[in-house]
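User: Show me a protein chain along with its predicted structure.
Assistant: Here is one chain, sequence first, then structure tokens.
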Amino acid sequence: MTPSPSTSTVSVERETGRVALKGRPTPSDQVDGAWWPFSRDLPEEVDLLLPALGDRVVAVGRVVFHAGDWDSPRGRMQHAGSVIRLDGYRFWPSHLVKIRAVADTDALTLMVIPPETAADTAATILEQCSADGSVVTVDDMTALLQRSAT
């Protein structure tokens, strides 16, 4: 379940993944939206995610993520004829991905909602992270995930 679309939120589901984005880019210390993948298979999920991003990040060249959040991510993947680097780091914040353009001209930071998250919790996070003017942090949303898991 995704939040109901508003003029400031772009929501897409199933064919292109579950993602909700703010209407415009945000400062670098804030998330630009949230993503609720269907599985922990990063290449498969990125393949679904990228079409949903439209022109928010042109010519994606790199996805940066926490290595422990995904099952056996490969170092590279192909999407629409381009090679995309998948850079997993243990020091990168959990529940966060950064989608970067080839020349680092564009970047999008998304809160990642674990696939097993309850639909109502995921919908809340999608809505809060994508609301224009929202200044929620990944730490705020991670705390919400932890509370809902107990």
